[in-house]
Specification:
The chain is of the alpha+beta class. It has nine helices and ten strands. It folds into two domains: 32 residues, no CATH class; 205 residues, 4-Layer Sandwich (Glutamine Phosphoribosylpyrophosphate, subunit 1, domain 1), CATH 3.60.20.10.
């Protein structure tokens, strides 16, 4: 058995002697083993490694904290974005876990940012809502003429990225799909995930990725009408109980240059096209 020697203060040594005299243990070694066993019983069975608890590179070059964050995004409710010449459609799968939930939920929806930008998110909902509120602050800081989807996404990337570097915080475990009009009033669609923004014609994040991807690949066409893009987004977002009430749907119309949430009556009509 390996022998361990340590130097302890005189006060602590006298306290150990007192415990031995009181009958808590036969000697100091036995007392130390008892104390260590008690300590180990209070910590998780799987002791974390240094690169597990901090956003640093593991020995094989991976940043595990980022990978954990991405896993949370992929396990969230499905979100979908579809971009076409007439605008952008955003969809989000609604949870069916609680039949008593009040809808619309102010914390789970398609969020307008300014007049012509919209966001849906998945993953850890608290993280997503926090990022939406930051996006709103960024939009307010920009002049109305300067507010466009590309400028907003760049600001969001610069805000999120430091959270993958600092030791005192963790990466955001929420993916955002951001759709809107750019400085030239062209419809654009971006996905912000793990501090990286990527532009898409159609994109998705969340559970059931393979099925959702196949639906988007089969149904997407560059010349889609905005209503057809919304129908495609709704079809791709809802995987199980395929009903219009199980999806949030919003569009950014390039003609009106406005974000608009789709009403339940409109969803009934759009749903017939899915």
């Amino acid at each position: 058995m390996t022998e361990v020697r340590v130097i302890i203060p005189e006060e602590l040594d006298r306290a150990l002697d007192s415990l031995i005299k009181a009958g808590f243990a036969g000697n100091k070694a036995e007392l130390a083993r008892t104390a260590i066993a008690h300590f180990l019983s209070t910590v998780p069975t799987q002791l974390a490694k240094g690169y597990d608890t901090e956003t640093t590179f593991s020995p094989d070059g991976r940043v595990l904290q980022l990978e954990y964050a991405v896993e949370s995004m992929n396990r969230g409710g499905t979100i979908v974005g579809v971009c076409c010449e007439e605008g952008v459609a955003l969809a989000k799968e609604l949870s069916k876990e609680d039949a008593l939930m009040v809808l619309p939920n102010p914390f789970v929806q398609a969020f307008p940012i300014g007049k012509n930008i919209g966001i849906v998110y998945c993953g850890i909902l608290q993280d997503g809502f926090f990022l939406v509120e930051e996006a709103r602050k960024m939009a307010e800081s920009l002049e109305e003429d300067a507010l466009n989807v590309e400028a907003l996404v760049k600001k969001l990337v610069l805000f999120v990225q430091p959270y993958s570097q600092r030791r005192d915080v963790r990466p955001f475990a929420a993916a955002l799909i951001v759709g809107g009009l750019d400085a030239e009033n062209r419809p654009r669609l971006f996905m912000l995930k793990a501090g990286l923004a990527t532009e898409y014609k159609a994109c998705h994040v969340g559970r059931g990725c393979d099925e959702t991807k196949e639906i988007l690949k089969a149904g997407y066409q560059p010349k889609l009408k905005l209503e057809d893009a919304a129908a495609l987004a709704a079809k791709a977002a809802v995987r199980e109980a395929k009903k219009p009430e199980n999806v949030l749907l919003a569009v950014i119309d390039a003609r009106t240059k406005r974000f608009r949430e789709i009403s339940q009556e409109e969803k009934q009509k759009i749903w017939k096209k899915t």
